Amino acid sequence: MSVVFQNSSGWxxxxxxxxxxxxxxxxxxxxxxxxxxxxSFKSQYFQTSKNYYCQSPTAALAGGKADVLQATDQQSKKRxxxxxxxxxxxxxxxxxxxxxxxxxxxxxxxxVASAQSCGYLNGDADAEKEALPAPECGLAALCEMAKxxxxxxxxxxxxxxxxxxxxxxxxPNIDLFTQVTEHNSDCGAVVPLMGRExxxxxxxxxxxxxxxxMKPLIDYEKKFDLIVMxxxxxxxxVKRSRRYGSLPSxxxxxxxxxxxTSPNCLVVTWVTxxxxxxxxxxxxxxxxxxxxxxxxxxxxxVTTLGQFVFPLDSQHKKPYETLVLGRYHPSASPSTxxxxxxxxxxxxxxxxxxxxxxxxxxxxxxxxxxxxxxGAECLELxxxxxxxxxxxxxxxxxxxxxxxxxxxxxxxxxADTSKEEAPDGPSAAPALSLPPHHYVN
Length: 441
Fold this sequence. Notes:
Layout (H helix, E strand, L loop, with lengths): L2 E5 L2 E4 L1 H6 L5 E5 L2 E9 L15 H6 L10 H6 L9 H30 L21 H8 L14 E3 L1 E2 L2 E2 L9 E4 L4 E6 L2 E5 L3 E5 L6 H5 L4 E6 L6 H6 L15 H4 E11 L3 H14 L2 E11 L18 E9 L20 E4 L12 H4 L9 E4 L8 E5 L11 E5 L31
Parallel strand pairs: 2-16, 3-9, 5-8, 11-18, 12-13, 12-17, 14-16, 17-18
Antiparallel strand pairs: 1-2, 3-4, 4-19, 6-7, 8-11, 9-10, 13-15, 14-15
C-alpha cells in the first residue's frame, strides 16, 4: 500500500511501496538464459530531508510539529522580487494562490500530523542524501530517428500488439516504435532493449513514440476508463535547463482522447502553477474533448520531516501542483447505466515526499481507484515510467525503468542467481541504437 493515511482532506502517499510492490519477483532475460531477481527502486531518490530554502529542520521543529509547515517571514521576504509591479500572469498567480492557500495549509497540517502519529514523516534531519547519477535518456532522440524509417503498412502487421517475451526470451527484432508492446507475465522482467537494460513491471503495455506516431495506440483497440497525462508544458525553467522538449498548449488538442476513451472516462491532467495553463485546460482543452471539469486537486510536496519543500508563499516556486479532473461524455447520450458516476470531492490533497528525479510524479492509481469501475482500463500519456495493469505512451516511456534506478539482487529461491550481479551503471552501458526493425535489412 502506498496510502499511509487518509482523511477528508486527502491522502498521504509513500511512493516507494507502490513502485516496489510489482518487483518482488523478477526474471532477468539474457543471452545466457534467465535468472530470478528481486528489484527495488533506489530509496535514495525519496530522501528529501531538507527543504530547498535552507531552513534548519532543528529550528523548524523547535516550535512543535505544527510549525514545520510554516516558512518564516524573513525567508518569504528574501524571495520577494525587488520590483513592486507585477505582470498580469503574476497577478493571476497570486490571486489563485490566495484562493487555495488555506486549503493547502490546513489540509497539509492535518494530514502530516496524522501521518507523523503513525510513524511516517519523522525522518532523520541530519541524514545525508546519497548523490545518485541519472543516466542520460536518449529515448526522445530515438523516436526522432524512428520517424525517418518508412511507415509500416497495416497489412504487414498481423497483430496490433506484440509480446515483450516469447518462449522465455525477449522477442527477437522487437519493434517498440510502431506497435504496442505487452508484458503479460505475473512477474517483472529485466530485459535488454536498444542496447540498455530495463525493468518492466508485470501486466503492462507501452508504446514508445511521439505525436506523429500515435496511430498504433488507437489501433490497439482498447477503450480506457482512466487517462492520466503529464504534458511537457512550456515554461522558462524547462527552456533554460533543456531537460526535455516542451510542447505548446495548443498542440495538446491533437491528442485523440475521444478515440481512446470509454463513456464516463475519468481524465486527469497535471498542470503547472501558471494560470494560463490552468485556464487552457479548463476552458479550452477539456471542452474540446467533451470532458467536463469535476474537481481540482493538489499534490503537496513535503520533506521526510513533513515540511513544505518550498515556502508556501514563495513567489518563485510553490510546494504544490494542480491536478484537473474531468469526466468524458460523448456527444451522443449514453445509457443510464453508463452515466453512473462516483462523486469526486473538490480541493483534495495528495501529500508525499517528491522524487529527486525531475518530472517523476507519484502514481495516482490507488487514490483514483474509488472513482473508476473495478477492472478499469487505465492509460498514462506522456509517461516516463510504467505501471502494472496500465498502458503507457510517450517518447520517454521507459525513462525511469532504466536498471540503474533499481537495486537488483539475486532471489533467495534461485540456486542459479548466487553469482548474479546487479547491472553496471549508465557509464558502462552501450550506446543507444535503434533496434532491428522487421522492415530493415
